[in-house]
Amino acid sequence: MDRADRNKVAESIKIDGLDDPKLAEHVPAHLLEQLREELEMATELLPKMDPAEVLAGQMTPIWFGSAINSFGVQELMKGIADFGPEPQPQSAEPRQISPEETNVTGFVFKVQANMDAKHRDRVAFVRMASGHFKRGMKLTHVRTRKPMAISSPVMFLASDRELAEEAWAGDIIGIPNHGQLRIGDTLTEGEALRVTGIPSFAPELLQGVRAGDPMKAKHLEKALMQFAEEGAAKVFKPNIGSGFIVGVVGQLQFEVLASRIEMEYGLPVRFEASQFTSARWVTGPKAQLDKLIEANKQHIGYDNDGDPVFLTRLQWDIDRVERDYPELKLSATKELHGE
Q1: pLDDT digits over 66-88, tens only?
Q2: Which candidate in 40, 94, 113, 338 could, as Cys together with 184 as Cys, close a disulfide (CB 3.0–4.6 Å)?
Q3: Which of 61-65, 191-195, 201-205 ranks highest by mean pLDDT?
């Protein structure tokens, strides 16, 4: 596919193995020699493909291709279908969910906002854990204990979407909503089950963020809360001072966030260095937690769920808190459980 003109399609040439003479007509000799050497090395040194080991999590197949050129995409999708596991029992409280159960159960593992910029939509991606879902069903939103009529579920293939009339355990459907659903939420046919084992990891990079127009601070807060709900970034509100601290796992994410905020909200922003480099969620007895917060106000922030976070630049501070407050737990992960 020609990037400059998507209507132009390059000629396809069939090559039958590495010994096909036509290969030398299209690949320079030094690259062809390198290809054969590296392929022989991979073939001899890597273990043979074993579907049973893939299902057991002991082996991972890898496909090579180029999505922008639509090369290898079909092979990848076929490989997922051939080697992907059947739906497995899902960890939950107070009991495990079996995919063979007849009652419908599903959980939100991803939220994406503004997929359709014209409608400001927000789609919660739900993985079905059990049962036979049908469009129009009423399911219980366990966190709020309220019924939800799922009238317009969708299924996606790349940028295409279509109404999902039904879904089974293992399928993924998208539920358009206005913020009611968030990552970790469980939907059931009435039973109070809560899917577990969905972690949120502490960010590796922290920066402050400011709106280019100080009068639009509220707009910035709305945008940041949206991205926090998506899981695209961690957003912390410091206990002291104004503004927000944004945490990500890679530097490029700051550029992506700035671009999305400007495109989706018309709000230019700038990221700047923060005095903090580490964040740890703090849990434990309320009395000890209140004591820690009172004594370390300058290190305390709150995430988008209102949970306390210890912010610091030094590992020494974390060690100090663990020593002085043995009943408290400082964790680099937080489980998303829809509560």
Answers
A1: 877 778 888 998 998 888 888 99
A2: 338
A3: 191-195
| CATH number given to 92-195 | 3.40.50.300
Q: What is the DSSP letter of 106?
A: E
Which residues are CB-contacts of 62 (< 8 A; sequence separation ≥ 6)?
A: none
Q: Of the CATH numbers 3.40.50.300, 3.30.70.3280, 1.10.10.10, 3.30.420.40, which one belongs to the domain with range 200-335?
A: 3.30.70.3280
How much is the pLDDT for 17?
Answer: 84
pLDDT tens across 225-256, in order? 888 888 888 999 998 877 899 999 889 999 99
Outline where the chain has alpha helix (H): 22-26, 29-45, 51-55, 73-83, 217-230, 251-265, 286-295, 315-324
63 contacts 74 by C-beta, under 8 angstroms: no
Pairing relation of β-strands 205-211 and 199-201?
Answer: unpaired
Helix axes 217-230, 251-265, angle to 10 degrees: 120
Write down the domain spans for the chain. Answer: 22-83, 92-195, 200-335
Q: Which residues does 170 contact at the CB level (< 8 Å), separation at least 6?
A: 86, 87, 99, 127, 128
Report how far apart the first and last C-alpha atoms of the chain are (Å, whole number).
Answer: 47
- 200-335 shares the fold of 92-195: no
* Degrees, nearest 5: CA angle 252-3-160: 75
Phi first, then psi: give them for residue 280, nearest 5 degrees: -135, 130
- At residue 1 the predicted structure's pLDDT band, cuts being 50, 70 and 90, is very low
